[in-house]
Design a protein that fits this description.
The complex is a heterotrimer. Chain A is an all-alpha fold. The relative contact order of chain A is 0.10. Chain A has 16 helices and two strands. In chain A, strands 1-2 form a two-stranded antiparallel sheet. Chain B has a single domain, classed as NADH:ubiquinone/plastoquinone oxidoreductase, chain 3 (Methane Monooxygenase Hydroxylase, Chain G, domain 1, Up-down Bundle). In chain C, strand 6 and strand 7 form a beta hairpin. Chain C is an alpha+beta fold. Classes of the chains: A mainly alpha, B mainly alpha, C alpha+beta.
Chain lengths: ~450, ~120, ~375
């Protein structure tokens, strides 16, 4: 065990008795499933309210059991394995997508030490010296499920959806990873429980607002949710990677998506919003807010707030186009998070060296202003490459039938100039009539 | 108990749930054979033969994938540096600034060359 | 950049990749109906596109030939189910012209009012469904709330919510109920005040603008070559609107209220803005019609017809500015109670043909944006 591993063991991680571990694991699993059922119902309700509808109402109180009923219905549906599918991969893919989503929960802190049946234990299954790295790793495995599902279905729409999701994952994971680095810089640890403990005074969302925003954007991208739901864009790819799935296999993908939502929300809570610690105005008036089982409530509320943001975005925003989405990831989030990280590191290093606070702020502000000026200058002197590229992408090159002085057929992707139907019979020089002439050449009726 | 063992317990439960669901799904659902039902979905049209498993299809993301590897390795370097930042002092900052600058040069080059234009 | 250096389909190089063929439709969420597009894809970029129509062909033109003129109206209002009233109008105008009928003033103004309300209904449908195709799920419900206002007055007068069947050869089915004009005014005012909300929700959205601006640019030359018409053509700067350029009904007297909305860009955003702006114009026109109807004296709204209605021998072409574009009926009569031939020129049929030109070079996501912005009804394509 490493040094930090020893430290974690010293505060009581990895020392639980076997039945306690089993109990906690089962409880966490149940929590995830219940949260999924709840989140689906909540999403349907909130979106319905935004759309002036009522939403699920009849199944259970206020329709709370609607998602359970949907699950049962899915179980009673025929389990189809399409003909062109790669059977083994096709069957394993939903599990590959689902299991990692649950496993990520192992290191999420739900609360501090509590006592369960007389045993003192953390409200957290376990903690690792590299807990956040572990979550990143496990989340990446989950994407395999989606990619493999798309590939193994043996059909075009899922294939495109799977490809999109892999590209999406790799683009947004970098920004996500970079935004974590700033947190580690402050907490000096990658263990989730220690990161929460380090936020006793100030949440990192306040100290590191840019990292927080980058993470929130990246986490929506990572979970394939609107406005980044390209892998399953129903208007384009019908269902995306899960088009060919039915019955409980489909339900597992659904479960994976919602559990992932809860995971990234929990991670955001843990890293930026002080985890299970009570929010500020409550701690000011109530001493016991951070003792006993109360922290679990704060954790739960914070996660719910994030889930509400997910739903809110889904109800409001249209979907990004694939290239725009990649542009945000690579051209905005990555450079921004790198620059921000170095900025944070500089400030912290200067502080450690004992420079005055106001001096540091002055220098950093000066540096930022200088950079901004440089970039504005750069934009002013260089032609906008993006626009050029856009212009190029707007359409294939016009076809020149006499390229190089001799007649050539059109290349693939090129189109012959439009030939109006009417001119087919009487061969005239091809040329579309001008717009203004349109009214003139209609068939005149007899008065 | 090991720090990592509980993860396996949770993973085991999830795996068991997944397998049970798959078996359940296969058992509880009706089975009514229909040739058309087993065809791949292509908007109600007989699917066009696809190059899956066989030929190649154009994947335009491989440049992105290579870029990803570059940056992912950068992140792997950044994490331990960030965790031990306070004990590294000014030296750590300068060292990492140089490393990030080196990666940034590659990134800027790529951007200028149009590697970040998506086709 | 990896461009398509290997080329597509040229030579069987080892590294060459095959293009994917993807069928969008006949059952695809973004074709709202049974339009089929056969796309050849290179990655996510469309190499070629071919609209395949006819899945919903119901032989409307052939059926017209075995129906008498009263029955034809019922058939004709079905092909474009979102502009039923405007479809009926073309048929009755053609028949009235053949018969040399003079329709009562009151009926003319009522028809104009109903045609404009119908236009609002149609446009609101597309204003809601277009964002839905781009992934915004909420605006359609707001659009439908406005539709419901107009729908209510239309339902009150005709009893129908989709296929109004309120036109008759020689006028309208019945006179307008008492107080109905006031309710129309109220509905129009309500819709007008709420429209800005829809505007903010959709066209004020950055993502929506990024998805639609500069996408699927339709040039005036293409518009002319393919016979594209309606708001789509006007979004490309083709300033042509039958209501102004060849006034029928009472549009000639509404010239000062009628603004023909045009845009120069010709992209998806321009088409959407055109549609939105046209709703405003139509609401103004509806108000003007209400004013006029209030002034008109009470009187008949239709003419007495013979038991067997026969159009005299001859032919005529009646065309109207339908919500989606030009809708024309070429009526050939041999003096019998059924037409010898009734050719239907529907707007959507011409409008979707231009997809072959617009789609190549676009991404799949753009395909959805372009398809949605061509505002078509599949029944109108397949007839």
């Amino acid at each position: 065990m490493t040094d930090s591993g020893m430290q974690l063991a010293a505060v009581g991680f990895g020392t639980d008795v076997w039945w306690l571990i089993l109990l906690k694991a089962v409880l966490i699993f149940a929590f995830c499933v219940v949260m999924t059922l709840f989140a689906i119902w909540w999403e349907r309700k909130v979106v319905a309210w935004m759309q002036m509808r009522i939403g699920p109402k009849y199944t259970g109180p206020q329709g709370l059991l609607q998602s359970l009923a949907d699950g049962v219905k899915l179980a009673l549906k025929e389990d189809i394995t399409v003909k062109g599918a790669d059977k083994a991969v096709y069957i394993i893919a939903p599990i590959v997508a689902m299991v990692p989503a649950f496993m990520a929960f192992a290191v999420i802190p739900f609360g501090p030490e509590v006592s369960i049946f007389g045993h003192r234990t953390h409200l957290q299954l376990t903690d690792l010296p590299v807990a956040v790295l572990y979550i990143l790793a496990v989340a990446s495995v989950g994407i395999y499920g989606i990619v493999l599902a798309g590939w193994s279905s043996g059909s075009t729409y899922p294939l495109l959806g799977g490809l999109r999701s892999s590209a999406q994952m790799i683009s947004y994971e970098i920004a996500m990873g970079l935004s974590f680095a700033a947190v580690f810089l402050y907490s000096g640890s990658m263990s989730t429980s220690e990161i929460v403990a380090a936020q006793q005074d100030t949440w990192y969302a306040v100290l590191l607002p840019v990292s927080f925003i980058i993470y929130v954007v990246a986490m929506i991208g990572e979970t394939n949710r609107a406005p980044f739901d390209l892998p399953e864009a129903e208007g384009e790819l019908v269902g995306g990677f899960h088009t060919e799935y039915s019955s409980l296999k489909f339900a597992l993908f659904f479960l994976a998506e919602y559990v992932n939502m809860v995971v990234v929300s929990s991670l955001a809570t843990t890293l930026f919003l002080g985890g299970y610690l009570a929010p500020w105005p409550i701690t000011a008036v109530w001493e016991g807010a951070n003792s006993g089982w109360w922290p679990f409530l704060w954790y739960f509320l914070k996660v719910q707030a994030f889930i509400f943001v997910f739903i809110w975005l889904r109800g409001t925003l249209p979907r990004f186009r694939y290239d725009q989405f990649m542009k945000i990831g690579w051209k905005v989030l990555i450079p921004l998070s790198l620059v921000w990280l170095m900025l944070v590191a500089t400030v912290r290093a200067l502080k450690n060296e004992g420079y005055e606070q106001s001096r540091i702020v002055l220098w950093v502000a000066g540096g930022v202003v200088a950079l901004l000026l440089l970039s504005i200058l750069w934009d002013a002197v260089t032609p906008n490459r993006d626009e050029e590229a856009d212009a190029k992408a707007a359409g294939p090159e016009p076809f020149d039938p006499m390229a190089g002085g001799f007649p050539v057929p059109p290349m693939p992707g090129q189109q012959l100039p439009p030939v109006p139907r009417r001119n087919v019979r009487k061969p005239e020089p091809v040329g579309a009539p001008a717009a203004a002439e349109l009214p003139a050449d209609r068939t005149e009726g007899e008065a | 108990m090991n720090l990592y063992a509980p993860i396996l317990v949770l993973g085991g439960i999830a795996l068991a749930f997944g397998v049970v669901s798959l078996v359940m799904g296969a058992l509880t659902g009706p089975k009514r054979y229909n040739r058309a039902k087993l065809e791949a979905y292509e908007c109600g049209i007989e699917p066009t033969p696809q190059p899956i498993g066989g030929g190649r299809f154009p994947v335009k993301y491989y440049l992105t994938a290579m870029l990803f590897i570059v940056f992912d390795i950068e992140i792997v370097f950044l994490y331990p540096w960030a965790v031990y930042f306070d004990s590294l002092g000014m030296f750590g900052l300068v060292e990492m600034a140089m490393f990030v600058a080196a990666v940034f040069v590659a990134y800027a080059y790529l951007w200028r060359r149009g590697g970040l234009e998506w086709d | 950049m990896t461009a398509r250096t290997v080329g597509v389909g040229i030579g069987a190089d080892q590294l060459d990749t095959t293009d994917m063929v993807l069928n969008i439709g006949p059952q695809h969420p973004s074709t709202h109906g049974v339009l089929r597009l056969r796309l050849v894809l290179d990655g996510e970029r469309i190499v070629s596109a071919e609209p395949i129509v006819g899945y919903m062909h119901r032989g409307a033109e052939k059926l017209f030939e075995v129906r008498d003129y009263r029955q034809i109206v019922m058939l004709a209002n079905r092909h474009d189910w979102l502009s039923a009233f405007a479809n009926e109008l073309g048929v009755v105008l053609a028949v009235e012209r053949m018969l040399g009928m003079e329709v009562p003033q009151r009926a003319v103004w009522a028809r104009t009012l109903l045609a404009e309300l119908n236009r609002v209904l149609n446009h609101l449908m597309f204003l809601g469904s277009y964002p839905l195709e781009l992934g915004a799920i909420t605006p359609i419900f707001h659009a439908f709330r406005e539709r419901e206002e107009i729908q209510a007055v239309m339902e009150e007068i005709s009893g129908g919510r989709m296929h109004f069947m309120f036109n008759r050869v020689g006028g309208l089915k019945e006179d307008l109920p008492a107080g109905w004009i006031g309710r129309v005014r109220h509905a129009v005012a309500t819709v007008r005040t709420r429209l800005s909300g829809l505007d903010d929700l959709v066209s004020g959205n950055e993502i929506f603008r990024a998805r639609t601006r500069g996408v699927g640019v339709l040039t005036p030359a293409l518009v002319a070559a393919y016979g594209v018409s309606g708001p789509i053509a006007r979004a490309s700067g083709v300033d042509f609107d039958l209501r102004r350029d060849e006034p029928y009904l009472a549009y000639g007297e509404l010239a000062d209220v009628l603004r023909v909305v045009t845009r120069e860009e010709g992209d998806c955003l321009a088409r959407f803005e055109c549609l939105l702006e046209q709703v405003h114009v139509s609401l103004d026109l509806a108000d003007a019609c209400c004013d006029r109807l209030d002034e008109l004296p009470q009187g008949p709204v239709n003419l007495r017809l013979p038991k067997v209605l026969k159009a005299p021998e001859g032919h005529t072409y009646a065309w109207t500015e339908n919500p989606l574009g030009l809708n024309g009926y070429y009526l050939v009569s041999r003096g019998e109670k059924t037409p010898w031939r009734l050719k239907l020129r529907s707007a959507s049929y011409n409008n979707v043909q231009v997809l072959t030109e617009l789609l190549p070079g676009c991404l799949i996501a753009d395909m959805v944006a372009i398809l949605g912005s061509l505002f078509f009804v599949v029944g109108d394509i397949d007839k």
